[in-house]
Amino acid sequence: MSPGRTLVKVRIGSEEYSLRSDRPEEYTRAVADHVNKALKDVLSAGTIVESQKAAILAALAIADELFQARAAQADLTGRIERLPAELTRLLPPAKRASRATGAFAPSGDAP
Question: Residues 47-52: what's their mean pLDDT?
Answer without folding.
Answer: 80
